[in-house]
Amino acid sequence: MKLPIAAALLSIAMLPFAGGAQAHHLSSKEDVEVKVDKNKSAEELKALWDQFGGWCAIADWHPAVKTCEEIKEGDDVFRTLTLQDGGVIKEKLIEKGDSTYTYAITESPLPVKNYQAQFSIVPDNDAADEVKILWTAKYDAADGKKDDDATDTIDGIFKDGLKSIKEKLGKKAD
């Protein structure tokens, strides 16, 4: 599906997070800025969300994810991601809006714990003709793991995913 997007800006920003109650609190942020027609920005935002923002849409755009299965347990909604290498990640949907969702990892082989993330597609506050695809996370290194290993892993996951989104939008990735 081709979206009527004029151009994708190839900027990816890494913003370290300082703060929080724990000394080893880490954060990762990745974004893609997408140029849109000012008169069609709401329509284009919805089209982007329809393509990339569904709870299990990650299986369509993230190269490490082989399949995604949505599971309901009582009132809670989870997704089970089966990775290309056979690993499995279980995530719980915490909150969902029209163009954003927040989730937590409940089971994973990743070197992180206390992981909570948000995926959003939102208008850019700095430019009326742009939207941003944002993916942010807060987490701690898993017990016995180094902070750098946790950060490198999550940053790599984010970069690979957003690079794939850029490619699906028909833009050359960094």
Automatic annotation (TrEMBL):
Signal peptide: 1-23
SUPFAM superfamilies assigned to the protein according to its UniProt record, in alphabetical order: Bet v1-like (SSF55961)
Keyword set includes Protein transport: no
Coiled coil: none
Pfam assignment, any one: Polyketide_cyc2
Bilayer-crossing regions: none
Keywords, ordered alphabetically: Signal
Protein name: XoxI
Organism whose genome encodes this protein: Hyphomicrobium sulfonivorans
